[in-house]
Amino acid sequence: MNKFSQPRKDPASAENSTNFAIESLSERERRRPRPVVEMETLIAAVAIYFVLVMNSAFWSSLWGTGTLAGVSGVKILMCVGMAIFALHALLIALFSTRWLIKPFLTVLLLVASGASYFSSKYSVYIDPSMIRNVLRTDLAEAGELMTAGLWFQTLVLGIAPALLVWIVRIKPRSIRQAIARRATFVVAMLALASISLFAILDEFSPIMRNHPSMRYLIAPGNALVATTKVLSETTRAQGASRQVVGADARLTGHEAPTKPHFLVIVVGETVRAQNWGLNGYFRQTTPQLAALDVVNFSDVTACGSNTEVSVPCMFSSSGRRRYDREQIVNSESLLHVLERAGVETLWRDNQTGCKGVCDGLPFESYRKQRVDPLCDGQTCRDAVMLQGLHDAIDDSPGDVVVVLHQLGNHGPSYFKRYTTEFRKFVPDCVNPDLGKCTRREIVNAYDNAILATDDFLAEVIRMLAADASHDTAMIYLSDHGESLGENNVYLHGFPYAIAPDAQIKVPMLAWLSEGMASSTGTDTRCLKERSALPVSHDNLFHSVLGLMEVGTVAYESDLDVFAACRREAEAR
Fold first, then answer.
1. Cα-based distances in Å from 226 to 205, 221, 230, 232
2. 337: closest CA among 244, 242, 472?
3. Residue 537 half-sphere exposure toward CB, CA atoms < 13 A
4. CB-based contacts of 222-228 (< 8 A; 24+ apart in sequence)
């Protein structure tokens, strides 16, 4: 046979081979049958699953309103359930095609299982501020929330039904048939949602007026709507330029022979006022601060219940009293005003960034992995931010403001925020899954973490007291508080309107060296006498400008906690 020639194929043999392949495929299909469903049927099934399985937190909250008694209550439950079903089905139908439906449903199932877990276990509301926190967190912080309980629920309620979605086959339709069926389905879902809500309009409207935040418990719609809103805001913000604040800012004091001012602002994390030893807590969680000459403000309200809201707000000129998130994030912060006046600034961060407060200004992060005795490979103790701090400002001939952004009491892994040295209250919770611990153990771990913050703040004060080249001061305030199981609520991030005091009442204190008190004319005894008066995050912007002797039209003396005591000192 010629080496270039090929054996001649028998047509009959080829046909038999093809038939065998077809028969084999058919046989495999018969052995492993896959259900064939209409796309709209699959959408409806998943939407029903959301209503019945993924929304226990919403149903519990609705039941807790006390308005579901009798026949009227049954009517509300049925109509609300149908409305939630119809709206989710409508949402899925509008954004799905035959080729995208399975990936889309998979994402929704995973999102819904996660949202359902945090809402039911920790009473977390999935609103835009919570989504911003999620999008801006880092791997170390996120890893602490990845508990066994979350993974189990995701596996059972998210991954398992997602596998079922991939097993079924979508019945093929012509383009004309697909469009007609989809249009009919959309109209039907829209009608069902409208009829259901209209049927209970009189009964349900008062419930939503009195409990508007309940909508943030409806999964996965809560996450989808909130994420869409956040992405939309981000898109608008990218094209916006920062609004100038305090264009006329200038230094007004500092007559010779005063020294340059050095102020440290410590932004705490997740410390609530009621567990703060200086506030009269039954435990002394601040023993070192109690031995120092600090001014403790005992009635302080945070601007938000989470970092994403509070940090930009406390460094803004408007604060909570004129709260407008878009205006705040698109305006210059306190640090920009200080820099314009000639005060050098530095932000040292052991958290997830300055949230725009220090954009364009000196910034140092301590969240990156580093070889240091104060770090464990994932996170570092807050004390790492003090390393080389004085060297960093010694070269500055003028005034300096340094912000230290703590990891502080960030949960749920409170036990990771302190060393054995501060493990005073036992037994303490040493599991990131708070459901595995008693409330007593959780509180003990949380209080131990405050002991570590107490040590950190005392160390800052000792460093400043030893500074002979500057007049020094420190202001500490926490960004928000924390729920520790009261009414089965944990962590933080409640919508501000319904946030419990545990999440928005925070500690705040000030320490002034004798030189700072003298050069600024501040009567510390007067400060202590006024320390029980209500203050808030709104006071930070104006108090720092007053203490650093920066004059600007943006400054409001009524919001400067030091102003009244400067006037009293001047009057003497």
1. 22, 8, 6, 10
2. 244
3. 33
4. 222/115, 222/125, 222/126, 222/127, 223/111, 223/112, 223/115, 223/126, 223/131, 224/91, 224/108, 224/111, 226/126, 226/127, 226/128, 226/130, 226/131, 227/131
CA 183, chain centre distance (Å) = 39
C-beta separation of 411 from 271 below 8 A? no
344 with 398: CB under 8 angstroms?
Answer: yes
Reduce the secondary structure of 27-49 to three states and give it as a string.
HHHHHCCCCEECHHHHHHHHHHH
Cα 266 from Cα 49, distance rounded (Å)? 47
Assess contact for 502 and 294: CB atoms under 8 A.
no
Per domain, the residue ranges of the chain are 36-237, 262-571
Residues 109, 50: Cα–Cα separation, whole Å = 8
State pLDDT tens for residues 212-242. Answer: 888 889 999 888 888 888 887 777 666 567 8
Task: Look at the domain 262-571 and name its fold.
Answer: Alkaline Phosphatase, subunit A (3.40.720)
Measured distance CA(174)–CA(176) in Å, rounded: 5
Picking from 231, 187, 216, the residue whose alpha carbon sits closest to that of residue 89 is 187
Q: Are 380 and 372 in contact (CB under 8 A)?
A: yes
pLDDT-derived band at 516, boundaries 50, 70, 90: very high
Whole-angstrom distance, CA of residue 201 vs CA of residue 186: 22
* Cα 390 from Cα 47, distance rounded (Å): 59
Separation of alpha carbons 109 and 42, rounded Å: 13
Rounded Cα gap, residues 289 and 377, in angstroms: 30
**Dihedral class, residue 491 (left if φ above 0, else alpha if ψ from -120 to 50, else beta):** left
Q: How far apart are CA 551 and CA 546, in angstroms?
A: 8
Rounded Cα gap, residues 152 and 506, in angstroms: 35
Containing 473, the helix (H) or strand (E) segment is: strand 471-478
Q: Which residues contact 345 (CB under 8 A, 6 or more apart)?
A: 335, 338, 339, 358, 361, 362, 400, 401, 402, 403
* Spatial CB neighbours of 274, under 8 Å, sequence gap ≥ 6: 281, 481, 501, 502, 505
Residue indicated by tokens 């946030």 = 499
| Distances in whole angstroms, Cα of residue 85 to Cα of each of 88, 153, 463 | 5, 22, 60
CA–CA dist 88, 84 (Å, integer): 6
Q: Kindly report the number of other CB atoms within 10 A of residue 462's CB atom.
A: 11
Q: How many CB atoms lie within 10 A of CB 212?
A: 12
Position 138 pLDDT exceeds 80:
no
pTM value? 0.83
Taken in order 189, 191, 193, 199, the sign of the CA dihedral is negative
Give the Cα separation of 400 and 393 in Å (integer): 7
Q: Which residue has the tokens 């770090």?
A: 375
